[in-house]
Amino acid sequence: MKLGSKVRSELLSRISSNPDILRGRPRLKGSRIAVYMVLEALASQMSIEEVLVQWPELTRQDIQAALLYGARSTNYEWIALHEE
What we know:
Blueprint: H1 5-12, E1 15-16, E2 27-28, H2 35-43, H3 48-54, H4 60-73
Antiparallel strand pairs: 1-2
Helix pairs in contact: 2-4
């Protein structure tokens, strides 16, 4: 399923990076939860519901954003992140 550019943009706006937080790793905006942490949790067979219990400050859209970021970054796409 292909996401529209507006949906992609809205999801990716949930990801930010700041060199002073988590050594600049991409993270969910407003948190100290790195994208890789969400991806590793899902890869370890945690369900979305279990991830939301683990990190109650996250939303389903945050998880979608992490998945989209991971997919786009492995496709050699440069993704501009806004510093928070």
